[in-house]
Amino acid sequence: MGLVRQASGLPCCRRPFRNFVYLLSWIGAFICGSLLTLMSVDPMSCNIHQCTEKIKRIDVEDSNSWLGMWGQNAKGPGKSVFLVIIVISAPGNSEQRDTIRQTWLSEEKSDTLHYFVIGTGSLSENVNVTIQSEQRRFGDLLLLNNVIDSYSALTKKLLASLVYVHYNVKFRFLMKCDDDTYVQIPQLHKELKAVPYKQRLYWGFFDGRATPHKKGVWKENEWVLCDHYLPYALGGGYVLSSDLVTFVAVNSKYLKLYKNEDVSLGVWLASVDLHRVHDTRFDTEYVSRGCNNEYLVSHKQSTLHMREKFNSLKATGLLCKEQFQVRKSYKYNWNVPASKCCVRNDSSIP
């Protein structure tokens, strides 16, 4: 019987020892595997380039999971330009887009790239066919397939645009504007070439005393930060340096989306050590202040106004046939509380 037991395996007295060895082996393998897994994502265990590539892939996937996939490839060839212009538009605003292409965008330089940003979720078949035809013709639409275009989607459209540009274009500066905005591109380009702040630049027309809306389309149900909005550049047009776009894009999954896209951006950048440059040549409020030849950016412009400005510049070199002011401007006072920042008491300010 002893010989039979030896032929079929170890004696019974040695089996507990064998099982204990197997258990230790399993525990050791589990610990080694866990350590290898931790090392693969620990920044102390990989070089900066490898870790950055891992983080970038994760961020793209996380962003796409709620922003939806874009009409273009999610990761493009990485075109290199000096300035990117994103124009927030709506599916039915083809006349505005055509007018912009024929006027101020016709002066776009070779180192400038533009996109018209449109949400295409839940479009009717006829509208979708029209949009796709426009895209085939011009190739300058940034189509957000999972965004239903509306006022309430403006912040999501902005964030999706910044994420897309960050991962697909190499650039120095980005300008955001609306499709009722006129931009003097040559002058803007000249200013950006000479701007002293190549990084951390947030340039536009700022407000710091605005109070949260309690009703209407811009009602902010979830604003709990304070009794005023944090200082922000008004959404008719502003400029960001590429590093600030990067900051927003890589942190996109952590950012709170408020109804107002310009307010949202002000909140996202509130804690960043940056250069807020208030410029009265940005006429970007909810109503135009008039027409001044110094204006670099003019918001609330009809297609007729855009053509008049373009023709005037071509004929006379001046933006306005006649300068006029319907609303006073202000210089932002950064030395007082934000609620007292912006006093309209000087009609000589553009």
UniProtKB/TrEMBL annotation:
It is a single-pass type II membrane protein. The chain crosses the membrane at residues 20-41. Pathway: Glycan metabolism; chondroitin sulfate biosynthesis; Glycan metabolism; heparan sulfate biosynthesis. One of its GO terms (biological process) is glycosaminoglycan biosynthetic process. Its cofactor is Mn(2+). It comes from the Eukaryota. Belongs to the glycosyltransferase 31 family. This is Hexosyltransferase. It comes from Penaeus vannamei.
